[in-house]
């Protein structure tokens, strides 16, 4: 039996325990406290004598501070916590989503029927489930089984926000049935547009919680099929094909105005937003998408508009849960996602009055700023009269001189094109950009950590002509001094070139503005590929990845009503399963087709969002020098767009140069994120180097699903590629088998 301790011994033991490592708040709380105090990560790193990346790791939970910084950090956090206590906890917003999960059944109560109890906020929104109601309509998708995302934390199903039990959106058909995510069906009694808006806001239980604590909830989205549009008195097509909106005197527009509802400046078009001023801090706004008016662009969504409403609700719902509820085109949604994840304002306490007021949010783009003259497009007001050149940071369009081809290359049987997965998204990761207005400097010393636009002469550098020039989108040698972004010049230094800026426009306030945007879109991209059985692990065997991609392409291009041809195609694939039942095979086709639609929308959101940072004026009446509406957005930032594209181009050149140094192989042509090589076989594995154990060589092109990795774009005969090159055409544009259009984000 142990000796009975005295009080002094117990106190000494307790003091020893207390002297151990201090317990820090959770990583998310650390970031909250710093933001509440209005301190940037860079400033905190300066105070604690560490790096900004280390602070970011502390706030992401990737690492923990050690003594003596741990004690100092805790002291600071405790001081901030006393000044900025936490608000009541809200429902967490998931980063990942494994697929449509039906909303949980709600028990009936107080004499109400089960349907009434499950109908959410209002009694007229009757909820039905296909299993207990009428048979599922033909073509409706069955709930997909949950897919496991390889080598990543297991994705949890999203927490159901009590305010929005029926998900972020619904597809409304002409019979009044609203199809929601997870197989939920609601009865919509509305027969007029005003009634529809009232029903959505008061009874439907549709919407999505904010993604940032200082942001706003997503407005509910109602997608109208052709029959639903006719039900509410909308025409089959918009007569105003230029303005893409209903006339002000149209009965539907007048009806909404009579009911005191307002429309945004875009009017009633394919994506109308109907609202009333916020009441008691609560938004009153509904977003519509009208399918017969081409709300879903086929370039971004494929054939999604042709799906059955139940299937379309799943495709759009999965996108909304993983990315954001669509608010227009994918380009508009990509830009909105930036603002949603980095709101420009936050509540701050006015020390003089004690009131909470709106203040700028650290790390965000808080106000519109004009670019420096060389950063602006020629029609911008600040560019009028400017004659000293403009920034030209665009994606590659380059073809190697056919005279530089050697016989060994021409005799190879294949030309293989590989495509970089979401190249712009990969370039946005950990990219420091300017947040404030540009400041002019004369003869500055180049600093690769300072985002800006620099005037430098790189024309004296003579790189290998078998590679595209790393400093120009044409791949040709620059002529005299030119304007370049920081990523381009940092790569020039990496290549051993001396960089001597003549002048520069730099920004004093900087930050990794696109990091949250990158993280959410990357997670959406990888979760969607994993749902289709495409491995997303960085260490995935390249052969397994190619087999999974071949299966995906075969299934995504198939017709679930004609399975015989698909069985024959699957029988020839290593990963094919031609022995599946017709029902399982049809379900496999649906899963891959719909997954491909979500994946295409995610990729289009990336490119479109980057392109929107430099949105050009629209309308035939515009004159150079006039301001246009996009300039009044804080997110109209052509310098950020240029930095992203420059980094993507530099990343590609680095891989091409590494491959040439290792194997002596040079590209035939490059177009945006596609590069074509001569190959002895039809697979990238026939020309990409590997280590002795079969793993890819670091620094070259790597096969895989991750952003920045690559996949097959297309395979053609080498003679075909040489013929195009001799005619002055770019094989990378046509390697896929069709006339691919260059898409560099705009």
Protein architecture, described:
With 746 residues, this protein is of the alpha+beta class. The protein contains 22 helices and 21 strands. Strands 1-4-3-2-5-8-7-6 form an eight-stranded mixed beta sheet. Strands 11-19-20-12-21 form a five-stranded antiparallel beta sheet. A four-stranded antiparallel beta sheet has the order 14-17-15-16. Helix 3 (41-47) packs across helix 4 (52-60), helix 11 crosses helix 19 and helix 15 (486-494) packs parallel to helix 20 (638-663). The radius of gyration is 28 Å and the shape is globular.
Brief overview:
Helices cover 32% and strands 13% of the residues.
List keywords for this structure.
746 residues, alpha+beta, 8-stranded mixed β-sheet, 5-stranded antiparallel β-sheet, 21 strands
Write the layout of secondary structure elements.
Blueprint: H1 7-18, H2 27-36, H3 41-47, H4 52-60, H5 69-83, H6 114-117, E1 127-128, E2 169-172, E3 177-180, E4 185-187, H7 193-202, E5 221-224, H8 226-231, H9 251-258, E6 262-263, E7 273-279, E8 282-290, H10 298-301, H11 309-322, H12 330-341, E9 345-349, E10 356-360, E11 397-399, H13 407-410, E12 414-420, H14 423-428, E13 433-434, E14 439-442, E15 452-457, E16 481-485, H15 486-494, E17 503-506, E18 510-511, H16 515-531, H17 542-556, H18 564-571, H19 582-612, H20 638-663, E19 669-671, E20 674-679, E21 710-717, H21 718-726, H22 731-734
Parallel strand pairs: 2-5, 5-8
Antiparallel strand pairs: 1-4, 2-3, 3-4, 6-7, 7-8, 9-10, 11-19, 12-20, 12-21, 13-18, 14-17, 15-16, 15-17, 19-20
